[in-house]
Amino acid sequence: VQLVESGGGLVQPGGSLRLSCAASGFTFATYAMSWHRQAPGKERELVASMLSFGSTTYYADSVKGRFTISRDTAKNTLYLQMNSLQPEDTALYYCARVKRWLSAYDYWGQGTQVTVSS
User: Which of 21, 91, 103, 108 has minimal Cβ neighbours within 10 Å of its Cβ?
Assistant: First the structure.
């Protein structure tokens, strides 16, 4: 199993970024997937999660209405569209394969850095 994130970078407050997570080594379409983030000095937190067939999603209150999780099963890729970014969104963002919905994850990517600053 391999998860590789990309798309992070430096963006001004109010800006947007789209993160990607390329998955391989397992049947992507049959697993729920999630995005997490960890800011310096803070614990890693769940940002968004999506069931295997995309009908159910979860968002942390802090990103609801600004972030959108999606997946392209033909490309084995998970996405996180992030709009209206704020400095408090600065963190290392990880994708993960869900082992138990909203509570356990068995594989992680290496992370991609998102920095929101003017």
Answer: 103
Nearest to 37 by CA among 77, 67, 71: 67
DSSP calls for 92-103: EEEEEEEEETTT
> Would strands 104-108 and 112-116 be described as parallel, antiparallel, or unpaired?
unpaired
List strand residue ranges (DSSP E) for the chain, in order: 2-6, 9-11, 17-24, 33-38, 45-50, 57-59, 67-72, 77-82, 91-100, 104-108, 112-116
Written as six digits, the tokens of 54 are 């995309």
